[in-house]
């Protein structure tokens, strides 16, 4: 794959380099040979460094950064296309696909690196040097963290134990890929063809247009419903037909299970193997459970597994009574107003929406008409310019698909800080959900600085007629959330990739993203980024007031659901017993019947598609969303206390103390530097509406 290098000069004469892929030159056939060659070069480099009697910082860190970047420029684009363009690049997917083979090569290389005693001892020798004593705090933190990572990875194990660990690491990588592939294949396999439009009664016209387009793409008449998020939410929320809602719910609830597709993509055995693998690797490394291993590198290490369990239990105690009252009210409303006396799982979103409209007169489809993508993006960029002191400019560069946007980011002194791509819409062959990913991290070059590059991926409903896309308020929140991650990456001023935001403690990584979501609920911000589809008027204050009132509608139910997910994750990974392995679906059923208050689908196989904890890096870490939300809520209060939610002074302090340091110091220190104190433990409960201010 070819790359271009855009070089700019800062007002002070320093060079900034932006490296961009030429997506048209991507060839999957070259990925594995290029990786193998780079790894051969990397292994020789490791042996050379390990043999140096008195290594320098440059030899241990700086000299290897070029090689690791070249590795990432092979793997990064390939992995991104596997997640977003499987229809175009089918050779990437599956257990025998190029992505899986490349991941296996990387896992092997990473294992060799983290278990290399010679490299470990070279770091220990350096710690005794005068150069180490004179390092800046960020560089010293990097060396200290690297030594800790060697220890946690098992560098002190015997040769036999290392060989076993390497096998476990290889197996774990392959299992994660298999889980994701099964999830995507099973999701894409389910479709419902509808000929009679009357079956879709209640579904908004914009959603029906998309379903009609999907049918046309398959040379079908009528409408095609898929399990892509926009279709699922449209049916669950608006379809008048209970039969249709039930059918789609069953398809959605049984993804990647034995109940669908003749078990072809059943993730049950994959989950069992993932849990066994995680437990065995943790025990081999000296941890009682995988949960203990997971927490060792997180902010929550200070409280341990029992502290995280108490954190979750305490919130459940606050949320469950509120959720019980809310669900009782939903059932009463469903019976009286909708004639639904046997409340079922496929009724929940439908009743939720109808009840919210009745109480607050907030119609999400009417709200959508005020948020064209272009206006929202303009509002978001203006917000970031105001609080972070940046300037965002849309550019024209090579992209992987028509419709993908590209933006460059400059600071207040017109210095290039980085760039990002935005791929906003759902499609077949694209991973579900929303995510940000890193392609290039900032680093020091001989003649200047390389600036970071990121991806922003969402799955909003694409426009059916090629015109302007209109976003739900939930889509707006998602865009702000992922942009928070993007700007955490772009605003980093770290000179080494391993000090970027990509290496912050996992239970704090959601702080900048959830922090930025707060502005989606500010009156001035909502009006600034809105323009009605027909009248061109901004969203009325009266509607905003109703939206704000509805914001805390059923927060007990919503919060309890998130807490159940975190509780499920922690129980799986902290109580695994190899003699009596946990059945994830049995555990989930136990949790939803003892802690949850709303009904679960009788055939639900939700764990089979819970990729966050089986293939997405959140294993024994799903609590991080709630943990970081408390930090984000407390951080936002600084703006409120200043009397100006767009305060440049507060925003620039947030950039300086939280975003710019990346992982060059613990996030607890960064938060304390910004807030002037540690986290207020009540901040999260107040933010969630579980206790009064």
TrEMBL record:
Q: Which UniProt keywords apply?
A: Hydrolase, Metal-binding, Metalloprotease, Protease, Zinc
Annotated Oligopeptidase A N-terminal domain ranges read 45-162
The biological processes this protein is annotated with in GO are:
proteolysis
Cofactor section: Zn(2+)
Its recorded reaction(s) are: Hydrolysis of oligopeptides, with broad specificity. Gly or Ala commonly occur as P1 or P1' residues, but more distant residues are also important, as is shown by the fact that Z-Gly-Pro-Gly-|-Gly-Pro-Ala is cleaved, but not Z-(Gly)(5)
Q: Name one Pfam family in it.
A: Peptidase_M3
Q: How is the cofactor bound?
A: Binds 1 zinc ion.
MF terms from GO for this chain are: metal ion binding; metalloendopeptidase activity
Enzyme class comes to: hydrolase
E.C. numbers: 3.4.24.70
Q: Where is the Peptidase M3A/M3B catalytic domain?
A: 236-689
Enumerate the PANTHER family for this protein: DIPEPTIDYL CARBOXYPEPTIDASE (PTHR43660:SF1)
- Protein family: Belongs to the peptidase M3 family.
Kindly provide the name given to this protein in its UniProt entry: oligopeptidase A
In its UniProt entry, the species of origin is given as Candidatus Lloydbacteria bacterium RIFCSPHIGHO2_01_FULL_49_22
């Amino acid at each position: 794959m070819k790359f271009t290098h855009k070089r700019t000069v800062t007002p002070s004469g320093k060079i900034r380099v932006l490296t961009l892929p030429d997506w048209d030159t991507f060839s999957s056939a070259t990925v594995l040979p290029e990786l193998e060659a780079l790894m051969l070069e990397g292994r020789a480099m490791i042996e050379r460094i390990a043999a140096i009697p008195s290594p320098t910082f440059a030899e241990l860190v700086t000299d290897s950064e070029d090689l690791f970047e070249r590795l990432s420029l092979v793997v990064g684009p390939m992995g991104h296309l596997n997640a977003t363009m499987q229809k175009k690049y089918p050779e990437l997917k599956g257990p025998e696909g190029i992505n899986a083979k490349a991941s296996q090569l990387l896992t092997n290389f990473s294992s060799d690196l983290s278990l290399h005693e010679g490299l470990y001892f070279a770091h220990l020798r350096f710690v005794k040097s005068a150069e180490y004593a004179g390092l800046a705090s960020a560089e010293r933190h990097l060396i200290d963290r690297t030594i800790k990572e060697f220890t946690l990875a098992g560098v002190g194990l015997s040769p036999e134990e290392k060989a076993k660990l390497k096998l476990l690491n290889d197996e774990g990588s392959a299992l994660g890929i298999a889980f994701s592939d099964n999830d995507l294949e099973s999701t894409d396999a389910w479709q419902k063809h509808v000929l009679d439009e009357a079956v879709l009664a209640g579904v908004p016209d914009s959603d029906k247009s998309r379903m009609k387009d999907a049918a046309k793409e398959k040379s079908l008449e009528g409408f095609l419903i898929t399990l892509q998020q926009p279709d699922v939410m449209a049916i669950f929320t608006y379809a008048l037909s209970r039969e249709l809602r039930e059918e789609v719910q069953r398809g959605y609830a049984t993804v990647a299970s034995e109940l669908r597709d003749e078990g072809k993509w059943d993730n049950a055995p994959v989950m069992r193997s993932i849990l066994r693998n995680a437990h065995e690797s943790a025990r081999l490394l000296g941890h009682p459970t995988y949960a203990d291993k997971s927490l060792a590198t997180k902010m929550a290490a200070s409280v341990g597994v029992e502290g995280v369990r108490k954190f979750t239990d305490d919130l459940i105690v606050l949320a469950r009574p509120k959720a019980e009252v809310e669900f009782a009210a939903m059932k009463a409303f469903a019976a009286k107003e909708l004639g639904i006396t046997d409340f079922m799982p496929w009724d929940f979103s439908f009743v939720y929406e109808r009840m919210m409209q009745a109480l607050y007169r907030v119609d999400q489809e009417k709200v959508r008409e005020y948020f064209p993508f272009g206006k929202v993006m303009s509002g978001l960029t203006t917000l970031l310019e105001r609080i972070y002191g940046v300037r965002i400019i849309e550019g024209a560069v090579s992209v992987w698909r028509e419709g993908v946007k590209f933006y460059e980011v400059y600071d207040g002194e017109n210095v290039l800080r980085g760039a990002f791509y935005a791929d906003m819409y759902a499609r077949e062959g694209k991973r579900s959900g929303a995510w940000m990913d890193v392609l290039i991290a900032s680093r020091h070059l001989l003649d200047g600085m390389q600036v970071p590059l990121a991806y922003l991926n969402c799955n909003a409903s694409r426009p059916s007629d090629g015109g302007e896309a209109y976003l739900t308020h939930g889509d707006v929140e998602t865009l702000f959330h992922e942009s928070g991650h993007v700007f955490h990456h772009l605003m980093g001023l770290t000179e080494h990739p391993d000090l970027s935001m990509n290496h912050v403690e996992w239970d704090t990584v959601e702080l900048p993203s959830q922090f930025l979501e707060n502005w989606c609920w500010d009156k001035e911000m909502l009006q600034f980024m809105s323009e009605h589809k027909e009248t061109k008027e901004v969203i009325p204050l009266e509607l905003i007031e109703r939206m704000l009132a509805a914001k805390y509608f059923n927060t007990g139910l919503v919060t309890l659901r998130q807490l159940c997910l975190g509780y499920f994750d922690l129980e799986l990974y902290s109580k695994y017993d190899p003699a009596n392995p946990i059945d994830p679906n049995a555990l989930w059923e136990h949790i939803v019947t003892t802690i949850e208050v709303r009904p679960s689908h009788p055939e639900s196989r939700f764990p089979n598609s819970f990729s966050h904890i089986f293939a997405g890096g959140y294993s024994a870490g799903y609590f991080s969303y709630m943990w970081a939300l408390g930090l984000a809520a407390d951080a936002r209060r600084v703006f409120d206390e200043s009397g100006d939610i767009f305060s440049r002074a507060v925003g620039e302090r947030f950039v300086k103390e939280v975003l710019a340091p990346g992982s060059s110091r613990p996030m607890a220190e960064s938060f304390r530097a910004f807030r002037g104190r540690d986290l207020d433990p009540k901040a999260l409960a107040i933010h969630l509406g579980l206790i009064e201010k």
